[in-house]
Amino acid sequence: MPKKILIVEDEPRNMKVMLMVLRPHGYTLLEATDGEEALEMAVRDKPDLIMMDMQLPKMNGIEATRRLRQMPGFNHTLIIAVTASAMKGDMEKMIEAGCDTYLSKPINTRELPEVIAEMLARRQEDNP
Ligand code: MN
């Protein structure tokens, strides 16, 4: 079974880049464009990993992450915060909300597949 990745991003251009970068790696890619849709899709499709933009319409990424972590079955889902803000306080908030790590925008497209593959592999070792 290919790993499922939910990409949450409201900026079409950024979404396009993420899809292009991740598509060749054989993942099942799902797309959500706001925080509410992200929650709905996460519940329905149970992704292995979520790329969570922090600045989103309807519900921001911090709130969406917090809510997901409170739901049963979502304590092991990997969540990568993606943000244009590089302020230290914001990073702390993201980790507190339950993000496993964060990446800053613009996304480093060469590193992204490695970061994701590593996180998924490590998670598999922890929870075989
Ligand atoms: Mn955004």
CATH top-level class: Alpha Beta
Count of DSSP E strands? 5
The radius of gyration is 13 Å
What structural category do the secondary elements indicate?
A: alpha/beta
**Domains (count):** 1
Strand order of the largest sheet: 2-1-3-4-5
* Assigned CATH superfamily: Response regulator
**CATH-assigned fold name:** Rossmann fold
Q: Termini distance? A: 14 Å
CATH-level-2 architecture: 3-Layer(aba) Sandwich
Give every kind of bound small molecule, once each. Answer: manganese (II) ion
Overall outline: globular
Note poorly predicted spans. Answer: none
Residues in helices, as a percent range: 40-55%
Largest sheet: 5 strands, parallel
- List the helices and strands in order: EHEHEHEHEH
Number of helices: 5
Kindly estimate the percentage of residues that lie in beta strands according to DSSP. 15-25%
- Average pLDDT: 94
Summarize the structure.
It contains five helices and five strands, in the order E-H-E-H-E-H-E-H-E-H. By secondary structure, it is of the alpha/beta class.
Would you write up a description of this structure?
This protein has five helices and five strands. The chain is of the alpha/beta class and 128 residues long. It has a single domain, classed as Rossmann fold. It has a five-stranded parallel beta sheet with strand order 2-1-3-4-5, with helices on both faces. The structure holds manganese (II) ion. The site of manganese (II) ion has 5 residues, from loops.
